[in-house]
Amino acid sequence: MFIWWWIVDEEHLLTSRQFELLEKFYEEGKTIEVRTVKKSQDEIASELGITRQALATHLRTLKVLGFIRTGFGFIDLTEKALKLLGGKGEVFILVKIEPVKRKEVCESIKKLKVKRACRVTGDVDLIIEVDKARLDEVLGEVASLDGVRETRTHIILETL
Question: Starting from the edge strand earliest in sequence, which strands make up the sheet with 35-37, in order?
Fold first, then answer.
């Protein structure tokens, strides 16, 4: 039997079976929403003014309850945690830009704290995805940019 190798980068190779597994997980997987904190537990404990051991106890409980996933150097808030905290909900801001100001507006949008911003074709120039909890803040920042002609906001009510 011949084994195909997939080059991931200069240091890593995947066998054809490993690549097949990734494809299967991708096809069968469900996209979930997370927020990632990339700090060490020592940093977080220090910021909270508690011991590393006390933090570890709290993190274990949050993990068991399904609110977080942890790994080396990161903590993910799960969809369950986001729902509890009230920030859950997809919001899309559609933006029309003056053609001569497109580059400047796009550079300013890159600096905003948004989930993602995409240049698109069609009757709008950008689609910005934000957390519902930050909508007013982001919308104010976007609307105040020189060159923004119009914004339209769409809040997802239900995923079918």
Answer: 35-37, 74-77, 68-71
